[in-house]
Amino acid sequence: MEKYEVKQIDNLLNLNLDSLIKESKKDGFRFIERLVVDYTNGNNTFSHSGEGLFGVFSEDGVLVAIGGLNRDPFSNEQSIGRLRRFYVSKNYRRKGIGILLVTKIIDEAKRYYKTLVLHTDTEQADKFYISLGFSKDNLYPNSSHFMELKS
């Protein structure tokens, strides 16, 4: 079985995301492309306190999944984090990669936030996040799911 490693991404521009962008757009998702645009223009570099961008890399160094943590930009509460730009390459789904990455992001979020929120509108993602302990509700602006964090 191939081994995977979750790493914090210090500079997104040093990575080749072409295949993830192409694949995600083919699936109807533009948020990986937006991730790169926002990172490049400085709108979101995941560099503030309590933020981070993480990737899962295969043994040969290929980026197979990505996800970020920001302070929730849709809330005035400093205690709410947001899971953003989460994507797992199709060939690596159902292998525990997504769980590995979300677990890392949750662990990181616990250090800074009381609540972690996210937005998704797909049934598959809804089931995935519910299975990891998120609750489905629109209690928070522009969010479909939330998790109360315990340190």
TrEMBL record:
Q: GO molecular function terms here?
A: N-acetyltransferase activity
> What are the UniProt keywords, alphabetically?
Transferase
Q: Which domain of life is it from?
A: Bacteria
Which InterPro entries does its entry note? Acyl_CoA_acyltransferase, GNAT_dom, NAT_camello-type
Q: Transmembrane among the record's keywords?
A: no
Question: Gene3D superfamilies of this UniProt entry?
Answer: 3.40.630.30
- What SUPFAM superfamilies does UniProt report for this protein, alphabetically? Acyl-CoA N-acyltransferases (Nat)
Task: List residues of the N-acetyltransferase domain.
Answer: 1-151
In Swiss-Prot or TrEMBL terms, this protein is called: Acetyltransferase (GNAT) domain-containing protein
Organism, per UniProt?
A: Litchfieldia salsa
